Amino acid sequence: MKKGIDYIGIGTGALIFNDEGKVFISKRGKKSRNEPGKWDFPGGAVEFGERCEDAIIREIKEEFNMDIKIVELLEVVNHIIPNENQHWVSPSYIARHISGNPKIMEPDKTDEIKWINLSDINIDSLSNSSRSNLIEYKKKYGNRKQN
């Protein structure tokens, strides 16, 4: 049985801001669970018995060698991908980069990473859930940088 396909999966993500107010994004690789080639605010699946907040902290450490601190819950996204026959529910957070120089730790899942100003993000290049996150963030804060 596969998460998100055979049953609704729980994933979590974060808009991670650095001290310059830029946000961290990653480009999904060919072996990503869904939406390969799209940019997103990174995250991953929540494991049984794991708090969503702990899952995003773990996932960012495993995938990008960064330590983050959760600031607040941004929204909960119904990440439904009809053309891939997937359904995820994804709490998304605002977080701060605490330490670690970001690097791709799972090259099959991630093609590229970068820090970028919110205003420079092409919304059409984002995954479904990250598109929702960006819209919700801008509703709440405009293009204000979190630092």
Describe the fold and architecture.
The structure is a single chain. The protein is α+β, with helices and mostly antiparallel strands. It has one domain: Nucleoside Triphosphate Pyrophosphohydrolase (Alpha-Beta Complex), CATH 3.90.79.10. It is 18% helix and 38% strand. The protein has helices at 52-64, 128-141, and strands at 9-17, 23-28, 39-40, 43-45, 67-81, 86-99, 110-116. The strands form 2 sheets. A 4-stranded mixed β-sheet has the order 4-1-6-5, sandwiched between helices. The protein has a 3-stranded antiparallel β-sheet with strand order 3-2-7. It is globular.
Task: Provide the fold topology.
Blueprint: E1 9-17, E2 23-28, E3 39-40, E4 43-45, H1 52-64, E5 67-81, E6 86-99, E7 110-116, H2 128-141
Parallel strand pairs: 1-6
Antiparallel strand pairs: 1-4, 2-3, 2-7, 5-6
